[in-house]
Amino acid sequence: MRIYLLSFLFIIFFSACSTKNISYIKIENKTNSLYKTVTSTSKRIDKEEAKNFSKDIILYSKFLAHSYGVTTYALFHNTLINLGIKDKGLCYHYANDLLSFLKRKKYKSFEFKRIIANRNEYFEHSALILTRKDISFENSIVLDAWRNTGNLYFSKVKNDKNYEWELK
């Protein structure tokens, strides 16, 4: 009986060590999805650059949320900032910090612009778009790290049903 118990514990212990990292798989899937979205917008986008960009922005969005100390939903985190409990993590913090990060990368086959929704209203919202001269505004890609608290939201502008975007 004792040998069976030890064998069972041994199997449980070592099988627990062999599980795949779900977070890594989710990040990899999201990176691949963003890569496909980016490369589908223009034939002139360098594929290697798009791959690097996709990985960089997915990971940096998560890094920003961590560095801002975000542990709750975005709107609740905004309340904590407005009460003086937290310092950063509003949508424009994400947009500004992402833009600074992306400019340092010096991507050549696309550019980034600030966008805004609900201008001058209580729920004004800021994000970025990935675009280039041969991509219309509607087909540019929204990059919103705030919306899902560091889990980058992306879609074509025309497909974003939550906001009506305009250039800032």
UniProtKB/TrEMBL annotation:
<protein>
    <recommendedName>
        <fullName>Transglutaminase-like domain-containing protein</fullName>
    </recommendedName>
</protein>
